[in-house]
Amino acid sequence: MKKPNAPRGPVAAALALIAAAATLSAAQPAITMKSFGTLRDGRAAQLYTLANSSGAKVAITNYGGIVVRIIVPDRDGNLADVALGYDTIGAYEKDGATSGTYFGALIGRYGNRIARGQFTLDGKTCKLATNNDPGGIPCALHGGRVGFDKVLWDAAPLVEKDAAGLRLRYLSKDGEEGYPGNLDVTVTYWLTDRNELRIEYAATTDKATPVNLTNHSYFNLRGEGIGSILDHVLTLNAARYTPVDKGLIPTGEIAPVAGTPFDFTKPRAIGERINDANGQLAFGGGYDHNWIIDRGTARARALVKAAEVYEPVTGRVLEVLTGEPAIQFYCGNFLDGKNAGKSGIAYGKRTGFCLETQHSPDSPNQPSFPSTILRPGERYETATVYRFSAR
Ligand code: BGC
To answer: pLDDT tens-digit profile of 106-116?
Structure first.
């Protein structure tokens, strides 16, 4: 039936134009949710897609808080997914059960390694599960057998004027993976209108415990599945790093990078010196080390620029800003091509890199490193921004 007062002719055309313009300018930050399938134990996982007003998108599942996709423009405005990952929850579960790449995941309670899987806190020795053994030496890696990357988080979508967000919450029980205290963890992801993925971490505890949270996204700024990252150009705002032993545990020394293949204080291609004869590169099978960020006079927890990566073909740039004291640069040396990613292409060696902001590895056993111990009454609070642009 015809509407009685429906405008016709030029009026209708003008109204249609106004409506179309409104739709165009109405591109606002938004978040949508759909099923991401079922875990082996029967629980349902969701996939949340955050979109900003300029068309960038970040997809996150509440399983492991995993960042599944990061879709950002190149210098010509072409969008591509620059995060390594999988299409299905099953593929993530399978990966965690075998090779353990930690694609995109939230890492905790302690990101990176703890020597021999133990530490002494307030006179008491805590024994953790060991789940990794570089050089044949067992250690605890990334929170243990079932770290924060393998748990289902409670999720709440958020929308603000200039950002879409997802708040994740997980209660890590006293004794979980050997760690003391009930740790109440909140991680909030934001995709801002400036094409930034901002990650805010917070935690409280009822017993003293180490806490070192990070995100384990692997980036390939040409696009995931496209190939090697060795031509990406890296700058690290770090004049010092922590050399490791063959078990990839820091020796305790804080060494200058000057004159070594670890000097990225000026932009250098990742692959330029990766095959140099160097004992540290041999231990890591390439770069898999922790740099101490030059924080200058910045207040504790204030965001400072830690890293920048430039991809020459697409012009994409990734800047990393953080309140953390250190950053693990890992260039995917252990990717072995066994796992096919979202585009069906196997992720071979060095086809993605991680820039994991954190405290240095094994801090609970390294008295000279900044403390990672959170005590009752204190609040763990830290943030990291991955900012995408192109030039
Ligand atoms: C570590 C690597 C490890 C990888 C697991 C990185 O954070 O530095 O040594 O193999 O995580 O995928």
So the answer is: 999 999 999 99
Q: Is residue 11 part of a domain?
A: no
Q: What is the rounded CA–CA span in Å between residue 269 and residue 346?
A: 23
The alpha carbon torsion through 305, 229, 267, 288 (nearest 10 deg) reads 70
Q: Which CATH number characterizes residue 212's domain?
A: 2.70.98.10
The CB of 328 under 6 Å from ligand 1? The reply is yes
Task: Determine the Cα–Cα distance for residues 305 and 73; give it in Å rounded to an integer.
Answer: 21
Q: Residue 1 pLDDT more than 60?
A: no
Please report whether residue 198 resides in a domain. yes
Q: Is residue 14 part of a domain?
A: no
Asked, for residue 2, whether it belongs to a domain, the answer is no
What's the pTM value of the predicted model, to 2 decimals?
A: 0.93
Q: Which is nearest to 351 in space by CA: 334, 332, 336? A: 332
Quick check: CB of 95 below 6 Å from ligand 1?
A: no
Cα 278 to its chain centre, rounded Å, is 28
Measured in Å, residue 302 CA sits from the centre of ligand 1 at: 26
The pLDDT score that the predictor gives to residue 193 is 98
- Please give the number of the atom of ligand 1 that sits closest to the Cα of 102: 12
Domain of 212 in residue numbering reads as: 31-390
Domain count along the chain: 1
Taking the CA of residue 101 as reference, the ligand 1 atom at the shortest distance is: 12
149 CB within 6 A, ligand 1: no
